[in-house]
């Protein structure tokens, strides 16, 4: 079993001049997981996931209607999909602008 000193020596040999701390320094944030990041981003801008869900739903239902032969409903769903995509992009832009202004106000 390698001692702590041997492990530090191995690290310094591998990374050369770079000394890596054993413990995170004060003020460092822990790595954020996908779920936590998704929840944080959704709370910051809730309209983007809503628009994404509507877009996916309209696309799926429109493709299903096209497969079953109802071309009129399929065309309506494709138009809804385009509108939902536009809503999603607009929500994204408004959310980014809002967060940018909020950061400027805190400085």
* Distance, first to last CA: 51 Å
User: Which stretches of 5+ consecutive residues score pLDDT under 50?
Assistant: none
Number of helices: 4
Report the average pLDDT across residues.
84
Going by helix content, strand content and strand pairing, the class is mainly alpha
Gyration radius from CA atoms, angstroms: 25 Å
Tell me the β content. under 5%
Please give a handful of descriptors for the protein shown.
107 residues; mainly alpha
What does this structure look like?
This protein has 107 residues and is mostly helical. It is built from four helices and no strands. Helix 3 packs antiparallel against helix 4 (71-106). The longest helix has 36 residues, at 71-106. The N and C termini lie far apart (51 Å).
Quick recap of the structure?
This protein has four helices and no strands. With 107 residues, it is an all-alpha fold. The longest helix is centred in the last third of the chain and has 36 residues, at 71-106.
Strand and helix map with partners:
Blueprint: H1 4-15, H2 34-44, H3 47-68, H4 71-106
């Amino acid at each position: 079993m390698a001692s702590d000193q041997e492990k530090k020596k191995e690290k310094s040999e591998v990374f050369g001049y770079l000394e890596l701390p054993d413990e995170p320094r004060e003020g460092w944030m822990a790595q954020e997981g996908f779920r936590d990041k998704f929840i944080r981003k959704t709370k910051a801008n809730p309209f983007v996931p809503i628009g994404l869900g509507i877009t996916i739903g309209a696309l799926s239902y429109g493709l299903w209607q096209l497969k079953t032969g109802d071309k009129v409903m399929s065309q309506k769903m494709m138009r809804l999909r385009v509108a939902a995509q536009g809503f999603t992009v607009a929500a994204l832009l408004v959310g980014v602008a809002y967060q940018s202004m909020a950061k400027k106000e805190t400085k």
